Amino acid sequence: MGITSSLFSGISGLNTNGNAMSVIGDNIANVNTIGFKSSRTTFQDVLAQSVATAAGTAQIGRGTALSSVDTLFQQGSFESTTSATDLAIGGTGYFMLRQPGTEIDFYTRAGQFRFDKDGNFVNPSGYVGRGWALDEHGNDVGTIQDIVLHEFTSPPQATASLIAVTNLNSSDSSNSASLFGTWDGQTTAPIADAAYGYQSAIRVYDSLGNSHDLTIYFDKCGGAGGGSEYDPGLTDVENSWEYIVASNPLDDNRTAFTTSAARGVLMRGTLSFNASTGDLNSVSAFEYTGALDPATDEAGWTRATFSTTGYPQFTAQFVPGVDQVIDLQEGLRNNDPTGGTGGWDAASGATVAAVRGGADIPSFAGREPQAMTATQYASSSTTIYQSQNGYGTGFLENISVDTDGVMVGHYSNGQILYLYRVGLAKFNNEQGLSKVGGNLWSATRASGDAITGHAGDNGLGKIAPNSLEQSNVDLASEFVKMITTQRGFQANSRIITTVDTLLQELINLHRG
Predict the structure, then answer these.
(1) What confidence tens digit (pLDDT) does each residue in 370-403 have?
(2) Parent domain of 344
(3) I want to staple 366 with a disulfide (CB 3.0 to 4.6 A). Which of 75, 336, 423, 444 is the partner?
């Protein structure tokens, strides 16, 4: 073996340690890079040469070579941020990205996302995040797609259900013989304050998102005020109240009501309470289905129909030509809305005219009190609870992301709507991924195809909103490696200088 072969062993050591220093330098340079995963180098010896010795054949190594550069995928620490679209993955997985204008997918641990001017959910380099669109119930729709917000408004929803739970003072007395009869929708003030005992107002919405105020007026039947239009059909006048549901008359576009004094009255009826407990015992409800003047056509006021959930409903027409059906919930549900005579007991009066003639007040075919119900206690009349399910047009105010990747939008109309689910991917062989710069990885044949799924499912990590994953570089470890690598490089350089000295001695053997 020539002495010069030792030079090549030293050179291999210099090259290998030089590459190791490059890896260390890259790690240190990316100590503050979001989502960066550090690398490490491992060495191996190279092919040895067999030589003859007194003991037989022996081997002498030819130096060292770089065995591999492995990526360390352990979790980095999280940094809290104020941006709801800054996302970090706690555990296994990568965010999926697509390069705009192509079908090429990339993967990253850096979750610095935002929405651009076109509504694309992008990282700082403009790559679009991927996930699943969600329906109104939060279920996935279709396959993985780009996360793009096409609409930044929430469309209006017409009110279809109205809840009004009240306590009516048992000590009140009747204020008018006919609450409905005192209403005059052709005047500026349709009803006088002295005509009723209590009112409860609530705002509802039509199909265009316009708001309208509905008011429910209550007045005690019988008593010092002198009777009620429903008295002939009532069995307990002292514990019964009549009511009307009314809107602003100018908002009522029903044809039969346009020139009528009853314009604005959407429903009328009675509430009956248990004399000993004060609980709501019975409800009647009438809506107008005739074609005459509803202010005088008592036969045209027929028993209301029921919603599928068992509540009486009325039809409003806030938008001309558009019927809007709304059910009224006062704490008593009809658990047999299709039984009997349209959900009403068979012996009851079918119209207000019939009740005036002595027929019984209608009662539900099946009465089922709810957890919150109207009452008649000896305390001031008050609204216990009221709600409705409509809303006007809303504008997107902010976005939040849950740990399962579900993205919801918060709108100015109070609605919280499902938008997308951020998708994650994992690989059977992470070491096979290829770094392409910009905190991105691409799949290779060695890594295998991406296995996609929801955050928190099938071994994928969960998403931490308002967070960014920091680099997992350990500076202390890198500095120690830097020292050992430097010493290794110096030692290999000594091999070369020492061999050079030996060669000089050989040259000096020549005597000229």
Answers:
(1) 999 999 999 999 999 999 999 999 999 999 999 9
(2) 161-388
(3) 336
